[in-house]
Design goal:
There is one protein chain. By secondary structure, this protein is an all-alpha fold. The protein is about 85% helix and about 0% strand. It contains three helices and no strands.
Length: about 190
């Protein structure tokens, strides 16, 4: 009997140990699966956030990025802080690009004004050129008239000396203008003598 009781106790202990071993095995498998699911969810969140950051940075590096768009990560972990830093960087770049754009527009406006002033100055120079040409033509005409005047009066002077004696430098001048002609002949005769 004592053996039988000892065997029964031994079987009960083995059964109890087996039960607890199986329970521990099942709990361990459930725990591992639970941790795997949690790890997968956590990794998916990290990978998704990292991919958002990578996509945004690559978009900016490609030069076709929208500088008003921001990375939408609201977590407080390291990736959230990294996203906040990238958003701040994008904001500063956007401010610089806006200032450069405004400066470019101002330079373009100034260049347009300079071009307009240059066109006005060109028109003024052309007007001055035209005026100078007209003045030169007038000077040539005055010079030619002066030469003609001198030639005409030089002839008159030669005949004036002879006419001074008679008082008539213009033969055939008669009437009321004859005396005027004689006075002019005397004046020019004295001036050019």
């Amino acid at each position: 009997m004592a053996m039988e009781q000892s065997r029964q106790e031994e079987e009960a202990a083995v059964a109890s140990t087996s039960f607890w071993a199986n329970t521990m095995l099942i709990l361990s498998i459930v725990a591992v699966l639970g941790l795997a699911v949690l790890g997968s969810l956590l990794a998916r969140g990290v990978v998704r956030s990292a991919n958002l950051l990578i996509d945004r940075v690559e978009e900016m590096a490609g030069g076709a990025g929208d500088l008003t768009a921001r990375v939408a990560i609201d977590s407080k972990d390291e990736l959230g802080r990294l996203a906040a830093g990238i958003n701040a960087l994008i904001g500063k770049i956007h401010a610089v690009v806006s200032k450069v754009r405004e400066s470019s527009l101002q330079v373009l406006s100034a260049a347009s004004q300079i071009a307009a002033t240059a066109r006005q100055q060109e028109a003024t120079v052309q007007g001055l050129n035209s005026s100078t040409t007209e003045i030169a033509a007038a000077v040539r005409e005055i010079s030619a008239t002066g030469k003609e005047f001198v030639r005409h009066h030089a002839r008159g002077q030669r005949s004036g000396r002879a006419g001074l004696v008679t008082g008539d430098l213009w033969p055939g001048a008669a009437g009321e203008h004859g005396a005027d002609h004689a006075a002019a002949n005397r004046f020019y005769g004295q001036t050019f003598a």
